[in-house]
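Subject: sequence -> structure tokens, single chain

Hey, anyone have a minute? Need the predicted structure for the following. Not urgent.
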Amino acid sequence: MKFVLKFFVVIAVLVVLATAGTADPAASALLSSGHMDEAVSILSTRSDAESLNQLSRAYYAMERWDESVKFGERAVSLDPNNASYHLWLAREYGRKASEANPLSAASLARKAKSEFERAVQLDPRNVPARVDLAEYYTEAPSVMGGGLDKARQQAEQVAKYDVGNAHLILARAAEKEKQYGEAEAQYRDAIQSAKNPADMWLQLAAFYRQHGRFDDMQKAVHSAMAQPNKPAESYFDAATELYLGSRDFSGAMQYLQRYLSSGALVESAPAFRAHYLIGQLNEKMGNNGAAASEYSASLALASGFGPARKALSRVQ
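Reply:
Had a minute. Here:
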């Protein structure tokens, strides 16, 4: 069941907003800003499909997988033809699978596959759903419905709408086959073709990090940050790569502060996680007092975020 954890960690990095146009603006703003306690308080009083989907995403952000799946399933049951709800439920099953015992993980992973496929069936132009489905096909063994041929078929479809993400799928397939030169070439093609080159530079940075090429990783991060008109969340993602690669912690903190002050926070990089990451960076640098302050700031926004609570108890 090793593939389950690897796959859904990747999916966590690739998560993008794929929500319906009927979202409650106030709740959406709370999710984007990372005010999870307020979002949960509001959304818990409602029973419509969109509110339940948003509630599932709030719990997803806080890594509370049981609640996330519970409300994701309810949203799908109320509106079974909404591709976005199926996509989020697939992600929720997947992250729950990553922490389950092997038997439960296998069942949850199959459910995730079914939900990804349903999302694509309902909305064939949904690029995030196709990218996630291709990632499943890349990482899953054949007995669980995986296959690189299936992943490459998704790349062919994605290329109709987003050439950069098509190259990303091909890069991951080549990497799975240990064709690392081809994988790197595909990542570079993704950068050249991408609507958001900064994101693809960071995907390349992650590739370098995973293969121990830390100098190249850091150069790729710098290339990402040099891109004009990059979205604010690129600063969050760049800081994440530097943290995971154990490079330039002070620079990573500066990126996170810039993100938090940007006024352009997004759901895939909520403020409470930015504070948590600053706390982790401070802790790595031996600044436990500063780390405790950041972990507390994270919990002030999302009191149900277990990793921050555990980290705070560690540094106090």
